[in-house]
Amino acid sequence: MARGRRRVEDPATARRILAAAEQHFAAQGLAGARTEEIAMAAHANKAMLYYYFGNKRRLHRAVFENLLRQLRAAVFSGFKRKAAPGETFFAGVSGYFDFLAAHPNYPRLVLRQAMEAGAGFDWLVTEFFRPMHHEFARTLREGIARGEFRETDPDQTALMTLQMTVSYFAAAPILSRVVGRNLLAPEAVAARKEALLDFLRHAIVRSGARS
User: Is there a contact between 128 and 64 (Cβ–Cβ < 8 Å)?
Assistant: First the structure.
């Protein structure tokens, strides 16, 4: 499948278009978002949008490419280090959480893409979701083999970890109304991260290995 973005001569305009497109695709989906509204929100014109991104579908892909490039840097960089499994695992969780906190549109974009399914979702699974799950599960297996982690099912634990991390941000607008406060406020996000990491440490790290 063609990449979403061509050579950029005016990066500031391209960044504004990507930012506006991210907001519109998260709120309205690929089918509902309108290129003229995206261009207007980016203080650009449709001609520039089509020049840089070709069409709406390629713009949609470019939004994902831009987000996943940052997500890879946040998560996979931790797995490439030569460190103990516990340090590696929790660095990956922390990086994923911080990425989601900085990009609240991401869960809605992924959910909309999953509902539409098809080839537009397959490349996300192949290029990112499956490798990310693999790295978390591999690190858990290594930690279990070294006696650092409890005996658990690595695949299930990896899936639960990823789900617990992303679900907070996906459900925050609803849960904020339930608890009567903004769960995306900085102090609430910080408290959630601390609670998540503490929960995971007690769930998977052997008691003698906890710091």
Answer: no
How far, in Å, are 27, 109, 149, 202 from residue 207 at the CA level?
44, 38, 9, 8
Strand partners, 149: 205
Tell me the per-residue pLDDT of 30-53, one tens digit each, with 9 for 90 and over.
889 999 999 999 999 999 999 999
Main-chain dihedrals φ then ψ at residue 149, nearest 5 degrees: -110, 155
Provide the residue range defining the domain that includes 100: 81-209
- State the pTM of this model: 0.86
Q: Which long-range contacts (CB under 8 A, 24 or more apart) does 76-82 make?
A: 76/131, 76/132, 76/135, 79/135, 79/139
What are the pLDDT digits (tens) for 171-204?
999 999 999 999 999 999 999 999 999 999 999 9
Residue 2 CA to residue 17 CA, distance in Å, equals: 19
Domain boundary residue, one of 63, 95, 115:
63
